[in-house]
Amino acid sequence: MLDPIHLRTFVAITEVRSFSEAGRQLGLSQSSVSEHVKRLEQFAGQKLFERDTHSNALTEHGRAMLEFARSILETNARAKRHFGQSSKRRALRFGACEDLAIGWLGDIIRPFMEAHPDVDLDFTIALSNHLLTAFDEGRLDLVLCKRWPDGDRGRLVFSDRIVWTAATTEPVFRHDEAQLVLYPPPSITRFMALTALEKAAVPWRIACTSGDLNGLATATGIGLGMMAHASTLIPRELAACEEDARLPPLGSVDFIQIERKAGDRKLLAELSQAIDRKAAGASRKY
Prior knowledge:
By secondary structure, the protein is an alpha/beta fold.
């Protein structure tokens, strides 16, 4: 095996072209320098230097050894840097529902990451129920999501009205059926919309289903139907529908935080407090 210490000595000799000077720079005795070269020559089974009283020229095998030596030493240095940095890095697994992940959380995530360059943020965007499942399975440290109606889990961050949303303020009905654009089950806003329509005996039809907010907003924006969405989080290109006797009210939803008791408590607390400040500012705005 090629010893990095021997290789470092060998490279130093080639750079200063002197055994004695290489030893001086590395803090090694002349005999140690010679021993390092001897070990490398034994490994290669070849002479690495053509020595005379005036120079220490590399042989053909010496030039080959120099390439290997530089490559090995550089690889070792990169590995040391990588694992040295990894030991100092921290990880935070954060999950948020789509309603908040697009836009609302930007003012929180950007400054948080700038303030913590040593933190690897693993960010998950999903339906609230899926996030809670991931948290229960130990795959997330902090979750910001919607609470199921009549549920009591989590710490309340803010509440918001759920409203019918469309491309314009005009509700979308075709053939006397409410045209809907919804998340797939087990979406909370889907449940609230369908439950309200059923109780009001309003015929409905699902015109589009999408697992992400961009897809829902696009389908709603081109007039396919209506979304049930938090009133303060309506995508910019959409509008809340005006009151219509055919559309039942949807009530409100709680946005909650759940955080793990283990892990980096200081880091979790800092992100949690940033979320609270954002929610407080948003509530004053609206």
